[in-house]
Amino acid sequence: MGLAGSDPPGGAGAAFGGNGAAAASIGLAVLGALFFSASFIANRVMAVDGGAWEWSASLRFLYSLPIFFVIVAARGGTGPVLRALRARPWQWTVWSTVGFGLFYAPLCLAADLAPGWTVAATWQVTIVCGVLLAPLLYDDERGAIPVRGLALSALILAGVFLTQLGGHGSLSWGMAGGVAVVLVAAVAYPLGNRRTMELAGAGLDTFQRLLAMSIASLPFWLAVGVLGAVRAGPPPSGQLTGTALVAVSSGVIATSLFFAATHRVRRHPFRLAAVEATQAAEVVFVALLEPVITSSAAPGAWSWTGIAAICAGVVLYAFAGRTR
């Protein structure tokens, strides 16, 4: 947690140079992937137990908002957050809703439609989405598509395909629907992350940006919560507990680590792509943990081949990023 909040406003530039910065950023992102993998498993468990996806989505952010507020307030940083929101309220609302709302709500809906394995594997499309969106978002060197990074992303996605092949062999209509909504999330997450990085600039650190995004996306989450109440009634006690654990593990720890990692390398296209690629490690963690926690079938030979390809792609990204 200390690492995630350690980049002071205006002080990230020192982290851009040198090989250590790239390796440290990738390390933070992989650690974040470990904590984020809990979401895929927990959301699936809550969905199987009858919990409404609307509550799984909205409660995570309703829980995490006061946590971020306490963290930022304890560091005396709420003033810059409020000033940033007042300066550009529309932009913060739109891109925070994209980066948080259109990212996490579809993932929770997908947990109703498909196993955590399918959701976690399909989610890795976000790796290439982040790379391909760059030319549409930037008009400087960050808009360049790193060819080597795209090739390594393709290797990782090939591994994802193999894990899917080994895990299911075919997709039902429900699984296909889950895949479709995850693709929406896969585009929204890097888009919202990169846009809010631009809005935050050097004026907000990682926790301040997360607080700003939580506040700006609050209308969306209240609307989703109301929808859940109308459709399914109040959340059961198990879902209240499960979403609280997800809020801390995924919403606070994982998101803080990942946002800190992307902030450190935000002006280096290849390193940013490398950090975003580490999200593929979530497939590995879910493959290892889901059978233990949910007593589901363990991955087969094809799945482990895919997992090996994913690991190879992430490792190659890490080494390639050290030379850029």
UniProtKB/TrEMBL annotation:
Record keywords, A-Z: Membrane, Transmembrane, Transmembrane helix
Transmembrane segments: 21-41, 61-82, 94-114, 120-138, 145-165, 171-189, 210-230, 242-260, 272-289, 301-320
Keyword Transmembrane on entry: yes
Superkingdom of the organism of origin: Bacteria
Protein name, UniProt field: Multidrug resistance efflux transporter family protein
